[in-house]
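Researcher: Next sequence.
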Amino acid sequence: MPQEQPFLTDPSPAGEAAGGAVPPALFDLAVNRAHAALRGLRPTQPEATLAAWHARTRFARRVSLEAVKAALAAAPAGEGVWHWAGGERGDWQPGRAPFP
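Model: Next structure:
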């Protein structure tokens, strides 16, 4: 069976820490897109897949990978549709995000 490689760009530690303030809408977008990517891919190694997604996604590199991981770790378990809202100090909200 081939190794799981959903993305072409390898993660780089240099890109894991974003510099500067992140607009709340950009943070929300990064968390929601990462959540959707992991949900859609259902990887066997979510940490590696998330790191590769972060390295490959242009806008996501402006958001700290650790902050995205922390938000994803707080995602509600179980049924239902949820989205992140409120920037770095936000929280999971029921329903779909207002924009993709």
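Model: The mean pLDDT is 84. The first strand starts at residue 82 and ends at 85.
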